[in-house]
Amino acid sequence: MKRRLIAAIGIAGMVVSIAACGSDSKDDGGSGSGADAKELTVWLTVDAQNNWPELVKAADAAVQKKHPGIKIKHEYYGWPDKNTKLDAVLATDKAPDVVEMGNTEMLGYMVKGAFAPVDPAQFDNSSAWLDGLKASVTYEGKTYGVPYYAGGRVANWRKDVAASVGVKTPPKTYAELTSALDKIQKKEGDKFNAWYQPTRDWYAAMSFVYDAGGSIAKEDGGQWKANLSSPESVKGLKDFKNVVDKYMHGDKTKDESDRYIVYGQGKSAMIFGAAWEGATAADPKNDKTGKLKDNLENFVMPGPSGKNLPVFLGGSDLAVPVKSKAQAVAAEWINAFTGPEGQKGLMGKGNLPNNKTDLATLKDDPATAVPATAAESNWFVPMAPGWGQVEKAQVLQTMLQNIGTGKKTVEAAAKEADAEIDKVINTK
C-alpha cells in the first residue's frame, strides 16, 4: 500500500479561486441538490483500487439499487498528483461528486469553500467518529466531509535487544520504558540509538506536548493563538528533548521520512511511528541485519503523564465538492462506502475504522489490539484558517531542530515558534 505517503504530506494544493455560488448546495448537506442525478463521478486514491475494489463495487450496487440506471464512474489517483488535478478541475464545471482527501489536506479546501457542507446525521456511526478524524472534517461549526478510515502510531522495538538486558515483555509505563532503554543504551554504547527518534518529527513531539496538557494553538472567540510557550507545552517539549538527548545518537537535523530504512540497518532498538513502519523495516529489502522479521514487536506507547501517549491520527476523508451536481446521491454513496459493512471490510484489510464503536472490537483481537488501543487517545492539528501556512513554513520542524541540536533553549525556541505561528494562523 502507498498509504504511507500521506503521513508526511501537509496541507497542499490550496485552491486559488473557488466559486461557491456556482452550486445550489444547501447547509443541510445538499439534500435538495442532485437527488435525481443520472451520473456520479467518484475520485479515490489507488489504495481503494488495489486493496479493496470489492468495497467500491458494493457501494456502487447499493446506490444503483436505489437509483436504477445511474452511471457511476471511478477515477483513481496517486497521492502525489491528486491535488494538482483536483485544483484544476475545481475551477471548471467538471468537478467530481465524491473525492478522497488525506485528513491533513481537508482544511485548506474547507477554508476556500471547495466542499459542500454535509449533515452528519445522514451517516452511520457519525456520533462515534474518532475525535481526530471528526476534527479533520469540521470547520467553523460545520461538517464538510466524512471520515473514511484511520491510521495511527505505535511504538515498535526489537525483542532480542530488549531481552539482552533482561527485559522480556513490552513496557506498560513510561518508567518501565525508560528503564529498559537506559539499560540498552548502556550496553550498546553511544553509537547506538536505544530509541531512534528523528528530531524534526513533529508528529511525535506534539504527542508529548498534548500528553503534558499543552497544545499547538488554542481558539478563543473565533481567533487562534499559538500555545507552544505555555508551561504545559514547554513541559511536553522538554520530555521530547530528553528522549532525543538520551537515546537518539544519529543526525539531529533529520526528519522521519526514512525512519523505517534507518531502523532496518540495525543501529536502533526502538522507534515510535506509523504502524506500518516496523513491518516495512523487517522487509528483506530493508532488513540489513537479517534478524528483524521475528524480533520486532509493536506496543502502545506509554506517556510521561501516566496515560497512553496521545497519537496523531492520520487517515482519509471523503468530501463532496461544492460544484457537484449530484450532492444528495454523492452523500448516499459515501454512506454506503463508509457504513458498517464498509468499515468491516476496511478493518479486514488492516485499517483502523472511522469510529469508536468498531475500534473497540479490534481491541479483543491480539493482531489488532495495539494500534486500536493506541488510537483511542489521539490529537489533530489546529483547524485554523492559516494552519496550512504554518505547515508550509515548517515552523514546528525548525523549532524542534533548534531544540534538539541545542541551538536554542526549549523556552526560547517555543516562544519564537509561537510568534511565527501567530503571524499567519488566522489568515485565510
From TrEMBL:
- Keyword set, alphabetical order: Signal, Transport
Q: Where is the signal peptide?
A: 1-22
Q: Name one GO cellular component term.
A: ATP-binding cassette (ABC) transporter complex, substrate-binding subunit-containing
Any one biological process term the GO annotation gives: maltose transport
Q: Name one Pfam family in it.
A: SBP_bac_8
Family listed = Belongs to the bacterial solute-binding protein 1 family.
Q: Which PANTHER family match?
A: MALTOSE-BINDING PERIPLASMIC PROTEIN, MALTOSE_MALTODEXTRIN-BINDING PERIPLASMIC PROTEIN
Q: What is this protein called?
A: Sugar ABC transporter substrate-binding protein
State the species of origin: Streptomyces shenzhenensis
